[in-house]
């Protein structure tokens, strides 16, 4: 055990959900979580957990998703550590009360300010696709804001969730942070409790279950959901560079990313140039046999494999299309001749298949996007500021990125979250503090 680890590594699986929440609420009620020192020391623990156990965590991510070490380190560990470091560097400043202008008729001695109040006990429910990052990242905000936490990892990413659960128990006082493992049944028991905030990442069907349960207690929720994130490739885009960046962004984690490019919209001439460029880019990145590439991941389980291979029937595999169920492998695939009414355009792909849909022009692309659910991310490849301005002003999405999909996630100064079907609320950096706090207004009118 290192100096940064907690004293007791108890397991709480024998406790009821009510007992867990009651215990964490008792801690919160003492007021201990409010001080800056307490918050900083919790964040330092979280940082130590990640840094001191990097290798074991990377191995678990490989076992679950065949995530290569470099990708696992960057996306699941380094990014999370960077978010902690940014929070540690700024927390004192972020927590300062902010004076507010008071209407003149209150007189010169009246003052007002805003201050961040911790909420209490928060529940973090994580998914399997970035099983470490999406478990730890919300916890950063929850602890920075002075709350106690129940963490519920995904039961599907068995290896990473087991290691992360064990480490969280080792590093944290169980009266500050408790891990509850399990699936729908255990989560349902948790959701029957009163929390002060619920932060859920996953699919929209369960998002609705979470929100309905939260409504019973008027508990605020953050729902980090998914959706079909479109990519508009304008005729002026350099197709080779576009293809290279699209392939890099789309096929990381075998496409199992909430903000992965889902489908491409482009005019027929651009599609004709882009498809061979995508083929070349896939080959440059993963070789002629991606199944043997150490850089290409696997599908999480048979259920998702079967779902994805059914979607291959929605078009023509101009690139890839090969699959091997025993190995949970689906090749990086570009599907052309996709009818907008086909199954692949009705659900989030969430795998290594990108659909290409031909549209006449930018107007048609904007109309296509607006006829569908609001996506988590919108991407475009263009040099034209006018095209970017039209896309950002005439469509709605959780966020946008021009020229480089997915990497916006690493910019912790940007809020990250969805809108409409892609979710509600936002986090990262300062936005995490806001999510897990109540911004309280304080008015002070002198008695004399
Ligand atoms: P998942 O199956 O791991 O489920 C997520 C969590 O919900 C798990 O902890 C699980 O135990 C719990 N859960 C499942 N069924 C439940 C039920 N009936 N009641 C209560 N809890 C239940 O992950 P998933 O949903 O397959 O994740 C993939 C989805 O998540 C995709 O749609 C993806 O786009 C989205 N996602 C969004 C983000 C984001 O940041 N916006 C990030 C990653 C994934």
From TrEMBL:
<dbReference type="InterPro" id="IPR012394">
    <property type="entry name" value="Aldehyde_DH_NAD(P)"/>
</dbReference>
<keyword id="KW-0560">Oxidoreductase</keyword>
<dbReference type="Pfam" id="PF00171">
    <property type="entry name" value="Aldedh"/>
</dbReference>
<dbReference type="InterPro" id="IPR016162">
    <property type="entry name" value="Ald_DH_N"/>
</dbReference>
<feature type="active site">
    <location>
        <position position="224"/>
    </location>
</feature>
<dbReference type="InterPro" id="IPR016163">
    <property type="entry name" value="Ald_DH_C"/>
</dbReference>
<dbReference type="InterPro" id="IPR016160">
    <property type="entry name" value="Ald_DH_CS_CYS"/>
</dbReference>
<protein>
    <recommendedName>
        <fullName>Aldehyde dehydrogenase</fullName>
    </recommendedName>
</protein>
<feature type="domain" description="Aldehyde dehydrogenase">
    <location>
        <begin position="13"/>
        <end position="441"/>
    </location>
</feature>
<dbReference type="InterPro" id="IPR029510">
    <property type="entry name" value="Ald_DH_CS_GLU"/>
</dbReference>
<dbReference type="InterPro" id="IPR015590">
    <property type="entry name" value="Aldehyde_DH_dom"/>
</dbReference>
<dbReference type="InterPro" id="IPR016161">
    <property type="entry name" value="Ald_DH/histidinol_DH"/>
</dbReference>
<comment type="similarity">
    <text>Belongs to the aldehyde dehydrogenase family.</text>
</comment>
């Amino acid at each position: 055990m290192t100096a940064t680890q907690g004293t007791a590594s108890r397991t709480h699986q024998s406790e009821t959900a009510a007992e867990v929440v009651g215990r964490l609420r008792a801690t919160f009620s003492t007021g201990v979580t409010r001080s800056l020192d307490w918050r900083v020391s919790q964040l330092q623990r979280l940082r130590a957990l990640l840094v001191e156990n990097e290798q074991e965590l990377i191995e678990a991510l490989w076992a679950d998703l065949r995530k290569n070490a470099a990708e696992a380190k960057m996306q699941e560990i380094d990014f999370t550590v960077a978010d902690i470091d940014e929070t540690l560097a700024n927390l004192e400043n972020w927590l300062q009360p902010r004076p507010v202008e008071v209407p003149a008729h209150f007189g010169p001695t009246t003052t007002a300010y805003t201050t961040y109040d911790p909420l209490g006990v928060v529940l973090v429910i994580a998914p399997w696709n970035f099983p470490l990052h999406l478990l730890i990242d919300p916890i950063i905000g929850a602890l920075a804001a002075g709350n106690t936490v129940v963490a519920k990892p995904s039961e599907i990413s068995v290896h990473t969730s087991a290691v992360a659960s064990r480490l969280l128990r080792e590093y944290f006082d169980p009266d500050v942070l408790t891990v509850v493992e399990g699936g729908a049944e255990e989560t349902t028991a948790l959701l029957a409790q009163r929390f002060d905030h619920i932060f859920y990442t996953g699919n929209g069907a369960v998002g609705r279950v979470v929100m309905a349960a939260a409504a019973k207690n008027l508990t605020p929720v953050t729902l980090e959901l998914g959706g079909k994130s479109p990519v508009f490739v304008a005729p002026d885009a350099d197709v080779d560079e576009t293809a290279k960046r699209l392939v890099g962004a789309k096929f990381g984690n075998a496409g199992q990313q909430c903000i992965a490019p889902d489908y491409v919209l482009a005019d027929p001439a651009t599609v004709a140039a882009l498809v061979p460029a995508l083929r070349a880019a896939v080959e440059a990145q993963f070789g002629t046999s991606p199944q043997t590439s150490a850089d290409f991941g696997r599908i999480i389980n048979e259920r998702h494999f079967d779902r994805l291979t059914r979607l291959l029937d929605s078009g023509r595999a101009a690139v890839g299309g090969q699959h091997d169920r025993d190995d949970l492998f689906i090749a990086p695939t570009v599907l052309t001749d996709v009818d907008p009414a086909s199954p692949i355009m009705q659900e989030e792909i969430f795998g290594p298949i990108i659909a290409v849909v031909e549209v006449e022009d930018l107007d048609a692309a904007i109309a296509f996007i607006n006829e569908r659910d609001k996506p988590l991310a919108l991407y475009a490849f263009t040099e034209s500021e006018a095209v970017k301005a039209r896309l950002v002003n005439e469509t709605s999405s959780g966020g946008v990125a021009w020229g480089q999909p997915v990497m916006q996630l690493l910019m912790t100064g940007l809020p990250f979250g969805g809108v409409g079907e892609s979710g509600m609320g936002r986090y990262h950096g300062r936005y995490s503090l806001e999510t897990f706090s109540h911004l309280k207004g304080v008015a002070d009118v002198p008695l004399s």
